């Protein structure tokens, strides 16, 4: 099977390191996960380009740089349990696993959840449990989580997810309106939540009980 390691190396150098991402585990994960196995066949040639790509059902796989930044903000460590909301292609989940984490990833659209399962299997990624349901409700069965990553645009941070964060855990999410959001990191310290902001991003909507109520 084609490996494309040279393209990944160039992606990491030009798109990710050059823009300031430094976490060695994140850089190594971006070098090792075969992103071309997570994009549709018709876009495989563009898999390592500096932009998001369509994955069908009006959804996208995020730009490599945005995946790297969100992973660095979350800073998953070996043995961490991470909850991802918005499985999409499964690529972000694979990056978290490559950083040493176990991942529970929730996707709302059944066909997209199936796609992610297939992509993850094809790429040989274990340690991801994909669930198909409304991720804004969280997943109390396995809580608390060391990190929670929301990879869809939310008008506000869903209350159930804040509750499922472990003490010292971090939640990273794009928060804002329909056109533009800000990348936000919330760190829990017992019953206190510390919020930091990291600039503008643009994501497809988080649709659910604690997200947007319908598509637009
Ligand atoms: N992390 C993905 C990847 O690596 O390819 C990209 C995620 S894509 C930008 C956003 C995903 O969030 C879409 O697949 C969408 O269906 C999903 N989504 C939207 N609302 C959701 C919800 N309430 N619960 C779970 N998934 C949701």
Which features characterize this protein?
alpha/beta, Rossmann fold, 7-stranded mixed beta sheet, 6 helices, 9 strands, 28% strand
Describe the model.
Helix 1 (5-16) runs antiparallel to helix 2, helix 1 (5-16) packs across helix 3 and helix 2 packs across helix 4. The mean pLDDT is 96. Strand 7 (165-176) and strand 8 (181-189) form a beta hairpin. The chain has a single domain (5-201), classed as Rossmann fold (3-Layer(aba) Sandwich). It is built from 6 helices and 9 strands. It has 216 residues and is an alpha/beta fold. The termini are far apart. The strands form 2 sheets. It has a 7-stranded mixed β-sheet. It is globular, with a radius of gyration of 16 Å. It has helices at residues 5-16, 24-32, 64-74, 91-98, 110-122, 159-163; strands at residues 53-56, 59-61, 81-85, 102-107, 128-132, 145-150, 165-176, 181-189, 192-201. Bound molecules: S-adenosylmethionine.
